[in-house]
Amino acid sequence: MIALVIIFTSIISGTVMSHILEHTTWIDSFYLSISSVTTVGYGDYSFKTVAGRTLAIVWLLISTICVKKSCLYLADYCQQQRRRIKEAKQIPPQTSPAVAVALSDKFNLLKYRSIGKKDDVNIKE
After folding, report:
1. What is the pTM for the complete model shown?
2. Where is the Potassium channel domain (predicted)?
C-alpha cells in the first residue's frame, strides 16, 4: 500500500510542479511527469525554465529512485503471495496447524533440493 502511495505522490508532485513552473496544461504536465519518472523521456516535452530544471533535477533523482524501489517491493510482494497460494494448495484442507507448518517446511526443503540450493548433508530434518 505504501509503495502505491509513493508512486502516486511522485507523479502528482511532478505534475503540479510542471504545471506551475512550466505553465503547461494539466494533461501535458501529467504526461511529462509520467515520462520523466519512468525514465522513458520521449523528448517532446521537457523542462524549459531555470526554476523548472532546477527542481526537476531534485525531483527526478528522488522520485525515480522511490518509484523503482516501490515497483521492486510490489513485485516481491506479488511473488510472495503467489508462493503462499502454491503452498496452500499442497496442504490438505483438513490439516491441523502443526501438521500444516511441518508440511510447509517439508515443501520448502524439497523445493531447495530441486533447485540445488541444499543437499542432504546440509538439511537437518
Report:
1. 0.55
2. 6-68
CB 53 within 8 Å of CB 98: no
- Please determine, for residue 20, whether its predicted confidence score (pLDDT) is greater than 60: yes
pLDDT in tens, 52-88: 889 888 988 888 888 888 888 888 888 988 888 877 7
Q: DSSP letters of 25-38?
A: -HHHHHHHHHHHHT
Does the pLDDT of residue 117 top 60, yes or no?
no
Distances (CA, A) of 35 to 42, 45, 98, 104: 7, 9, 50, 43
- What CATH code would you report for 2-77? 1.10.287.70
Contact 35, 45 (CB under 8 A): yes
